[in-house]
Amino acid sequence: MSNADATQSVTERLTDRDTLYRIGLYAVMYGLAVVFFVPYWRMFQLSVTPIAVLSQGGFNWIPPEITFAVWQRYLIEEPIIYQWAFNTLTIASITTAIVLLVDSMIAFSITRLEWPGRGLILGIIMASFMIPGYVNIIPLYTLINDLGLMNSYWAIILPFAAGPLGVFLLVQFFRDIPEELEEAARLDGFSSLRIYARIILPLSTPILTALGLFVFIWSWNQFLWPLIVLNDDALYTLPVGVVTLRDVNALAPNVIMTSLALASLPLFIVFLLFQDKLISSVQMQAGTG
């Protein structure tokens, strides 16, 4: 093949509409990835920059001096952040498990069981989307205080044991499961509870995984409600604890950025471990919606 033919072939491929679309798509995606990466890099860069360098001002993509003294301080010398991480992990895990159980049972009863008023109940659940969360703060605070649950894990977990978003997603997913499977199971003598546990839940693993990740991340990032109901430093969650560190170290940006990095690192690891299931579940839900 001559050079002219090779050049013409390359030119035709570059001018192909699909190729240009793919190049533009990748350019936009990588550009957005860089835009989202810059704040995280800036956070890490400030966390390893000595305070003497920061006090000089200026902007550096790579600090002229690097120190991990602040990281060593919070990871080894002052392990209070481990307690906050344990509190956050415990609360997020229990909340996620309860939400998945309660929401899936509600969705199963609405889509698979015959009882009067189930359409009305679903409508009320959907209507609750229109109620701002801040409206419930005072009633929830009064209820938790009357139950004697203040300053405990359950004060954070119980108010969010079920949510309309999870019920809505699971109802849509359960409706797409063929009813023939349930009919065959009932012919084999399966009870409703056994159908729920042995058929519906295993088939719903993708949407349950996605919902679990969403709930876990949301619970991990809670700030306002834990700040209201927790008074003991040892019971603080990571978002609340990081704010207290920021107030104490307002003139030390490297300390603030280190605490923020430590608070966001666990969620980053969780996403890396479950990103395939999260993406596949979102795609499946989009295809069945």
UniProtKB/TrEMBL annotation:
| Record membrane topology | Multi-pass membrane protein
GO biological process terms, semicolon-separated: transmembrane transport
Q: Which residues form the ABC transmembrane type-1 domain?
A: 85-274
Provide the primary localization. membrane
- Any transmembrane segments, and where? 23-41, 84-108, 120-141, 153-174, 195-220, 255-274
Q: Does the keyword Isomerase apply?
A: no
Q: Which keywords does this Swiss-Prot/TrEMBL entry list?
A: Cell membrane, Membrane, Transmembrane, Transmembrane helix, Transport
Which Pfam families does this entry report, sorted A to Z? BPD_transp_1
Q: Name one GO cellular component term.
A: plasma membrane
Compartments reported by the entry: Cell membrane
Is DNA repair there in the keyword field?
A: no
Family, similarity comment: Belongs to the binding-protein-dependent transport system permease family.
The protein in question is named Sugar ABC transporter permease
Q: What is the organism field in this record? A: Haloarcula pellucida
